[in-house]
Automatic annotation (TrEMBL):
GO molecular function: ATP binding; ATP hydrolysis activity
Similarity remark: Belongs to the ABC transporter superfamily.
Localisation: Cell membrane
Bilayer topology annotation: Peripheral membrane protein
Residue ranges of domain ABC transporter in the record: 16-246
Name of the protein described by the UniProt record: ABC transporter
Pfam families: ABC_tran
The species this protein was found in: Amycolatopsis rifamycinica
């Protein structure tokens, strides 16, 4: 459970504070009484599989979906009575790009700026700065339809910054992007955080959460399974290292029996056996000494994927 602000009265109030937050759709309870606190200037993440309740939570924070029960404050205000005031201070990057593909890159930013009440001159200045930030200045007069997926995603983020938001909500920001585009987008988000923008990110990519988030919650079936920094979660729920032993199909169960007792925990997956240990190389040597002969072996550091396996017994991507 995330700490309440009451536990630290001298700390600045949280930008987002939820207590026993619930969202139901008919009989289905998508969010089941979660507590969340997001502090100013941090990158906070919701990590979990599809259907975990991440997007439903984000829509409540974005003031576009009313809560069913519980308490929620965004920027110190109640979304049910101050939705327009809150939305004016937010930036929102939805799961799917909703750009106007018939307009140019620059026109998408100018029109959005006017929507937030910027003068034409101010909108032009803001558009020029955001085009440079998103590395799209050389495509400013191109139609959006001609952009790559990564460029469209960067433009969507640039558009969300037109109103200089205090809080930026990013729902699955890099889904569908190739590795190069993902890393470029991460770089843009790191820069925003360095400039003081508070980020809330939902993702089912474990490496993304580990790269971007100062703190995160792991959600599953509408509940929070764990909370902390990526390093804290790995320290609490996994070991320092993991030994991966890969086998031909059908051989991993027998191999798991051979290595029993060599590690703190043994995980059997369809193509491999994972041995959780603080001394990976030593564990691997002892496995070989028992006659275990995998197709390949690897000693690596623990990751958030290992944490999720420990908490839920399955991988993040359903």
């Amino acid at each position: 459970m995330v700490r309440s602000v009451d536990e630290s009265e001298d700390r600045e109030p949280a930008l987002v504070q939820a207590k026993a937050l619930v969202k139901r759709f008919g009989e289905f309870e998508a969010v089941r009484g979660i507590d969340v606190e997001v502090r100013r200037g941090e990158a906070f993440g919701f990590l979990g599989p599809n259907g975990a309740g991440k997007s439903s939570t984000m829509r409540m924070i974005a003031c576009v979906s009313p809560r069913t029960d519980g308490e929620l404050r965004v920027l110190g205000l109640d979304p049910e009575v101050a939705g327009p005031r809150i939305r004016a201070r937010l930036g929102v990057v939805p799961q799917q790009d909703n750009l106007d593909v018939e307009l140019t890159v620059r026109e998408n930013l100018l029109i959005y700026g006017r929507y937030f009440g910027l003068s034409r001159a101010a909108a032009r200045r803001q558009a020029a700065e955001l085009l440079e930030f998103a590395q799209l200045s050389d495509r400013a007069d191109d139609k959006v339809d001609s952009l790559s997926g990564g460029m469209k995603r960067r433009l969507t983020i640039a558009r969300s910054l037109v109103n200089d938001p205090e809080l930026l909500l990013l729902d699955e920001p890099t889904t569908g992007l190739d590795p190069q585009a993902r890393h470029l987008l991460w770089d843009r988000l790191f820069r925003l955080k360095a400039q003081g923008t508070t980020l809330i990110v939902t993702t089912h990519y474990m490496d993304e959460a580990e790269q971007l988030c100062d703190r995160l919650v792991v959600m599953d079936h509408g509940r929070i399974a764990a909370e902390g920094s990526p390093a804290d979660l790995i320290r609490r729920y996994s070991t320092r290292e993991v030994v991966e032993l890969r086998f031909a199909p059908g051989e991993q169960v027998a191999a798991a029996q051979q290595v029993e007792g060599l590690a703190e925990r043994v995980e059997v997956l369809p193509d491999r056996v994972l041995l959780y240990s603080d001394t990976g190389e030593d564990t691997l040597e002892r496995a070989h000494a028992r006659g275990v002969r995998p197709l390949s072996s690897l000693v690596r550091r623990s990751s958030l994927e290992d944490v999720f396996l420990r908490l839920t017994g399955r991988t993040l991507v359903d």
